[in-house]
Amino acid sequence: MKNLWLSFILALVTMSSVFAQNQNAIPGEYLIRFKNMSAAKAFYNRPGPRNIGKHEMLNVRFAPIAKVKVSDRDEAGRLGAALRSSTEILYVEPNYLYTLAPHQTRWDMAFNQNVGRYTKPTDEFFDKLWGLHNTKNAGLDINAINSWKVNKGNGQVIVAVIDTGVDYTHPDLGGNIWTNTKEIPGNNIDDDNNGFVDDVHGYDFANDDGDPMDDNSHGTHCAGTIGAAHNAHGVAGVMGNVSIMGIKFLTGGGSGSLADAVKAID
């Protein structure tokens, strides 16, 4: 509880004195976590908060969270005052921006072709996947080949890749892309009444549409590590059989907001 209140106080200080200065957040946007939905309604039914900034309740099931956008320092100060006088709030934080970190691909680890009695996949770039099987540097791999003799996954297992989206047409992802069979593609109707239109292979929260196609490549790379088909093409995923659901909240430029991340996880 002490840490919770400390976070709350720090957020209020940020709102009142450092408005629009946080380079790692969307200027003027904050997320408010209410104790429950009744608390959220009570807060916004009061005249003061209702007239401060542009606010919306995020459509998520696990928690009542509102996103509010204020236009200037004065409005931020008034919102801060309203929050300080409220007993309905658990915490407040800026609408942070998440950005892909720079990374280097390491293909320098030597790979030993001798895999004993186990069968090495014929995927053309498998030899570069030192993280899956590496006999030169013991302990640096996950012993994937031995594991695959026990289990290569199951298509009934759905893995949501929350990232820049997934190229669901990629040949190496083969038949391992999740498909919502209750949704009719391209008819602009929420056929399964789950709140998302045309979510056939996932959803794009960065652009608020049903097409999670990757326009960056990072999400597809991650999806391949998880579940690229063992099909003599490209790489081999940790699971040869799986259903990959593309959940996009990062843009093609590799950044996305906390609000969109919350919706993506939900």
Overview of the molecule:
With 266 residues, the chain is an alpha/beta fold. 24% of the residues lie in helices and 21% in strands. It is built from seven helices and eight strands, in the order αβααββαβαββαββα. It has helices at residues 2-17, 37-45, 47-50, 73-84, 144-148, 218-227, 258-265, and strands at 25-34, 54-57, 65-69, 89-99, 153-163, 202-204, 241-248, 255-257. It has a five-stranded antiparallel beta sheet. Strands 5-7-6 form a three-stranded parallel beta sheet, sandwiched between helices. β6 (202-204), α6 and β7 form a beta-alpha-beta unit. Residues 1-21 and 104-118 have low confidence and may be disordered.
| Computed structural class | alpha/beta
Helix content: 10-25%
Shape label: elongated
Mean pLDDT over the residues: 84
Major sheet description: 5 strands, antiparallel
What Rg is obtained from the alpha carbons, in whole angstroms?
23 Å
Number of E-type strands: 8
Which stretches of 5+ consecutive residues score pLDDT under 50? 1-21, 104-118
User: Looking across the biggest beta sheet, what order are the strands in?
Assistant: 2-3-1-4-8
Count of DSSP helices? Answer: 7
The end-to-end span amounts to 25 Å
Strand content: 15-25%
- The secondary-structure element order is HEHHEEHEHEEHEEH
